[in-house]
């Protein structure tokens, strides 16, 4: 991971203060994702992965919803290509996140951009975007620290799920997947501050409900693009 002191303006807060602020900001989302990580670890064991393989999924793949989907498909004997396709569709929102920060990260070195890309999650995006709105600039060190802290929580939760899954049957039936919805609600509600954001959220949700029964996992992309389009049009109309 690149040093947190790199690419920071003169007079910026100390490294310790930066670590503290980024860690505190990402902490609520990190805690909320613990049941989700436990579920990933336990489910991986149930479909036949070894404890090491289950942990490596979180260490290397590091994509919560995609991990759950890939694990479930693997357990059902699905070939590799459909699993990869499903993973791509489920994580496609990261393309939108990348476009959002494109101008901010272009001046950075490849090492910084690669590190930010690896640690980029829905949660890291949410806190980094909020920090940019608050300060008026994108702070790559802040974003990287927040992403790294979340990464530690996710892998610790996965390890806990692996350990618990070896002794407790039926962890996947305990409703731990509610943490997925709770986490996204916690990220979405604070962002609904104006009409374009509210409309984008409502349209995305409505489109997801309408298209999911018909379009399988492609509905994620369609609902997201629909919400973005409505939000963009309303934003332009207000200018």
Automatic annotation (TrEMBL):
GO terms for biological process: L-valine transmembrane transport. It is found in: Cell membrane. This is AzlC family protein. InterPro entries: Brnchd-chn_aa_trnsp_permease (IPR011606). The chain crosses the membrane at residues 26-49, 112-129, 141-162, 174-193, 213-234. It is a multi-pass membrane protein. The lineage of its organism: Bacteria, Pseudomonadati, Pseudomonadota, Gammaproteobacteria, Aeromonadales. Coiled coil: none annotated.
